[in-house]
Amino acid sequence: MSKNGRTPHPGEILLDKFLKPKKMTIYKLAKDINVPQSRLSQITLGKRIITADTAIRLGKYFNKPAQYFLGLQNDYEVFLAQKKNDKVYKQIKPFKK
Questions:
Q1: Domains contained in the chain, number
Q2: pTM, whole model, 2 decimals?
């Protein structure tokens, strides 16, 4: 989670930490990892999730474990669920023996 209490979509991280610093286009990345350009465009726009397949491809390309990219996606989904269902989650009492 970022300092402002917002967890960024993994596509935002892909764009800001991987593509922009390398001055790489979505087109080049899509071509190099053999996926449709539309898939990566949708991910960077926050309209599509990073699947296991995409995470493996990104991991191999950027020399990161696939779990890194899946972790970004998971963190984002947990953030959204907590934001949406916070009141419900606060009502759940921990199990006691």
A1: 1
A2: 0.88
